[in-house]
Write a structure and sequence with these properties.
mainly alpha
Length: 195
């Protein structure tokens, strides 16, 4: 499933449950979690083939610091992947899921037919949620990739270690320090001072 679809699913559930922007941002991170380590794989190995350590059952352990929503969001991502080519859920090398059926856009990316209604509904959810919540969750999503890019060298030691450390740092920055809130306050403070 194309990456935007995971975010659209998060927005649909966030709208349904009327989550505040902090919960919505956390769920966007969790729902995108299995894909984060792709960037490390791409930077270090030049490839981003799905592997057990980020799409297997071990991915649930990475989400424990993010709580119940983190585990649920990660699970929804894995369920979606079962229907778009399968996942190596267990370390036995066997992929579980259905074959990829859809339109090849470029390279390994495939647009599956049922992604279209999700995208349409997701765009409606974006409209209803409002820019404040959406921009906050997108910053959370980008923060995730930033953390994984910075910690890419750890991948040379162990993919498991780099993934686990990256998620711990991401959780600390997002949930404990509330980095996005701090940056937002500073930016607004600068704007008010200039005004």
């Amino acid at each position: 499933m194309l990456l935007p679809m995971h975010i659209f699913v998060a927005y649909l559930i966030g709208l349904w449950r009327n989550w505040n922007r902090k919960l919505l941002g956390l769920f966007v991170i969790a729902n995108s979690a299995p894909d984060y380590s792709f960037i490390q794989m791409l930077l270090i190995e030049g490839d981003f083939t799905r592997t057990f350590f980020n799409h297997g059952f071990v991915s649930f352990f990475y989400m424990i610091p993010f709580g119940f929503l983190g585990i649920i969001g990660n699970g929804l991502h894995l369920i979606a992947d079962v229907f778009t080519g399968g996942i190596p859920f267990l370390p036995n090398g066997i992929w579980y899921g259905f074959p990829r059926i859809g339109w090849h856009l470029w390279g390994k990316f495939i647009l599956v037919p049922w992604e279209v209604p999700i995208a349409v509904a997701g765009i409606y959810a974006v409209y209803k949620l409002g820019w404040e919540k959406v921009s906050y969750s997108l910053l959370a999503f980008i923060l995730g990739y930033g953390v994984f890019i910075v910690l890419s060298p750890v991948y040379l030691i162990s993919p498991y270690l780099s993934t686990a450390l990256s998620f711990l740092v991401l959780w600390y920055l997002y949930d404990r320090i509330e980095t996005i809130d701090v940056l937002e306050a500073k930016i607004l403070g600068v704007r008010k001072a200039k005004a």
